[in-house]
Amino acid sequence: MSKIVVAYDGSELSKKALERAINLAKQDEKVELNVITAILHPIASIYNYGAVDAAHEANLEAAREMMKEVEETLKAIPNKTETYIVEGHPAQKIEEFAKNNNADLIIMGSRGLGGLKELFLGSVSHHVVQKASCEVIIVK
User: Fold this and answer.
1) What is the pTM of this model?
2) Which of 20, 68, 80, 105 is the most exposed place for a label (fewest CB within 10 A)?
3) What is the Cα–Cα distance from 32 to 13, expressed in whole angstroms?
4) Cβ(2)–Cβ(104) under 8 Å?
């Protein structure tokens, strides 16, 4: 195994998924660990364009802050690590990211945050399990 992708949204289960990935990576310094979070881009209409821009910027800033915390956690291991913020439907983006980056394993929570963050739902983990081109570990 050379590359692990962790789907992260700040939920308790995504934190457990990150812990699992870190523990696996610690076993071999050559394993690369990529942590990805996905944010949906709000749909604009002619009536709410400014509000959509503000909401998107707020979501992006929240994701940046969350990933800074992840980066601090990742400093504890000697492995090569990267964090990524991607925009789009989380399930598709996780699957595409893993495929495009030749991931050997995806680790994610069985469900995550809903509401404003809309990052992970049970349907996201289900989609990734069905469509991923590599192994997937679902953390409960």
Assistant:
1) 0.87
2) 68
3) 21
4) yes
